[in-house]
Amino acid sequence: MANRSVGRRLPYMRRQSPHHGLEFAGAASERNPQRPGACPGGFPYLAQQLLAGIPRIVWDMRLSTVILPVHRWGKGQETWRRAEDLGFHAAYTYDHLSWRSFRDGPWFGAVPTLTAAALVTQSMRLGTLVTSPNFRHPVTLAKELISLDDISGGRITLGIGAGGNGFDATALGQEAWTPRERADRFAEFTALLDRLLTEDAVSQRGTFYSADEARNIPGCVQRPRLPFAVAATGPRGLKLAARHGQAWVTTGDPKLFEEGTPEQSVAAIRRQAEKLGEACSEIGRDAAGLDRILLTGFTPDRSRPLESLDAFVDFAGRHRELGFTEIVIHWPIPDSDFAADQAVFEKIATEAAAQLR
Length: 357
Known about the structure:
- The protein is globular, with a radius of gyration of 19 Å.
- Helix content is 34%, strand content 13%.
- By secondary structure, it is α/β, with parallel strands linked by helices.
């Protein structure tokens, strides 16, 4: 069956984005090798790396937010509209059945929330941060993502990770997977989802996930598929990011959250980035072709970067030096782990970018 490697549009380079305006068609992939220079995941590194003689562009750091799905849509839609008004590059949401301290309160589904958000926004990118195999199957997820990308006009990014051992891990009645099984499932899940989103029909028999003539026509608006932002800190996940990702996501080193220092956190993230570079080198990919996304709130800094504009600029600047291209901050939720002053948050949203250029 046909794949969608011809006439593809470089992810993140859509006309709606305020940060990117370049379009590129016909990049090579493993399934369409007639054009040289494509990364092993089937995407060009960056358009300027494929066009001889045009130097690599250094982008300003992008600022995005993550909006937890804790409000009925009558109220929740106001937040998504406000996020676009504030100029955020993207607004993400968690893809969980519930999450930690929010488990006993309202919590809505990620895909319906993003579908509704797509209808009340115009240009801001949207996505999950992150989706995992805990309660998803690649075949059904691919159909939902293609529909969502169509409804949004090609503005969806899929944040994807291995998942953890919390509520989602057992909600369907199964035993929680071991770390090894989670990693095995994540690898198989991601590879199959990649195929499902780039080919018209897929049949594949796997250890954990299978597809039998699964049809996905007409495919994503973004070609050959919507971009993957792969969350990873360990060696196997980083290899997946190198092979399938258009972006890499980290929250830092979870071992440092309770008792570590900001300096130790920066050093740990630097080591993660170095290992990502090694994983890319192993398969002949330039690590500079991956966006690097830091989801804040889980480093030893906790909520301190949102205490003032200066504090945030200092925090973001330290991570920009590590090559991060996008910082994601949680939309404030009073009386929660993500409580913050709304006025300061909005000041950061509107003024920080100018200080990070």
